[in-house]
Design a protein that fits this description.
The chain has one domain: 3-Layer(aba) Sandwich (Rossmann fold), CATH 3.40.50.300. Helix content is 22%, strand content 26%. A hairpin with a 4-residue loop joins strand 1 and strand 2.
Length: 156
């Protein structure tokens, strides 16, 4: 599903929500403490589908949904704590500061940030970036997913 392109950026084609979930699952299985995954993509691109697979890969059984009314949801039941952020509704970065995002980003768990472009300046320079894009208007279920900052074995 994934092929390496330039600068250790990987491009994957997802043909349905299950593929995006599986990609998240594989990365979640190998995720390490202190990693921040920045997720980019429009509404309905599949960021939460990826997050759900990622949580499963960490061994979290709890249902993961978009943290619509809060900026961050913590899930403790897996191999590592998962901090699932959704920046969609934040007005500016100070709201992230109010919830003490640094303790999560630089803590002992793994952070996933939906709508990462809205908090770009707060992301660690070495964060793992995942861009999810619709490929065409005809193929409703196809997505191009690009990943940077991840080791190749994490995609297996
Ligand atoms: N290839 C795909 N990857 C992810 N989701 C897909 C795909 N094809 C269709 N979908 C559908 O698109 C929607 C993605 O929703 P969601 O993951 O909540 O998006 P986001 O969090 O980016 O707003 C779901 O209804 C899912 O079933
Ligand atoms: Mg979402």
């Amino acid at each position: 599903m994934c092929a390496e392109s330039k600068d250790a950026e990987y491009t994957c084609i997802s043909r349905g929500a299950g593929d995006t979930f599986d990609l998240g699952l594989r990365l979640g299985r190998r995720a390490a403490a202190g990693e921040v995954y920045a997720l980019y993509g429009d509404l309905g691109a599949g960021k939460t589908a990826f997050a759900q697979g990622f949580a499963k890969g960490l061994g979290i059984d709890e249902a993961v949904t978009s943290p619509t009314f809060v900026i961050c949801c913590a899930y403790e039941g897996g191999r590592l704590p998962l901090y699932h952020f959704d920046a969609y509704r934040i007005a500016d970065a100070s709201e992230m500061e109010e919830i003490g995002y640094e303790e999560f980003f630089y803590g002992d768990g793994v952070s996933l940030v939906e709508w990462a472009d809205l908090v770009e300046e707060l992301l660690p320079r070495d964060c793992i970036r995942v861009w999810i894009e619709r490929v065409s208007n005809d193929d409703f279920d196809v997505r191009r997913i690009r990943i940077s900052g991840v080791r190749a074995e994490c995609l297996q």
